[in-house]
Design goal:
This protein is of the alpha/beta class. A hairpin with a 2-residue loop joins strand 10 and strand 11. A nine-stranded mixed sheet has the order 2-1-3-4-11-10-9-6-7. It has a two-stranded antiparallel ribbon with strand order 5-8. 28% of the residues lie in helices and 32% in strands.
Amino acid sequence: MRLVALFALFAASVFSSSVIAAEPAPLKVLLITGGCCHDYPFQTKALQDAAKARNVDIEWTVVNEGGNGTSAKIDLYKNPDWAKGFDVVVHNECFAATTDEDYIRSITKPHFEGTNAVVIHCAMHTYRDAKIDDWRQMLGVTSRRHDHKSNYQVKNAKPEHPAMKDFPKEWTTPSDELYIIEKVWPNTEVLATSVSEKTGDLHPVIWAHTYGKSRVFGTTYGHANETFEDKVFLDVVINGLKWASNK
């Protein structure tokens, strides 16, 4: 009887382990969005639908605050533990004129301490007017302006990177904005580039970055709804989110 009991206990343990292995916990993702110039409800749903279509199990928390202007300090960041419990924070907001240094550092501090991030399009111009570089250092690039909207050619510079595994050798964007990158910060790996139609200069448009203990994935594209309907764009953002989660 003792052998039977031990076998039953062992079988139950194996079954329990197989269930756990087959059903990993969903990624906990905080999406922060809002501000100037873009259709954030559409973009939010596009990201959620894209993850679901690619069988990426995500538990989303969406914070859309601050109105549609260029300056805001949202209530979320009043809580020093605002990022606690999330695998990744997606920044898809646009508040260029917010300059409060303590406020900005209340956002970058949890990222430096290990909260992973995905940063999209106007996140690069958020806090653009601030004198401190903390946010720009977290992003991995510095940008303060953009070229006109066009269909830009994107070249895959690092096809071996996990975020780029479904990205073609070359891709042409829907009509979107090319951000002018003034500086690439240390620990930033450029994954894809585009060329300015005005100057001929080469600019990073997709990258992976480490900031303190965190992983950061970024892209400067994402202005138009058409971009958020494009399979290649959605592939790379979701793969970048998976990479950033480090799971």
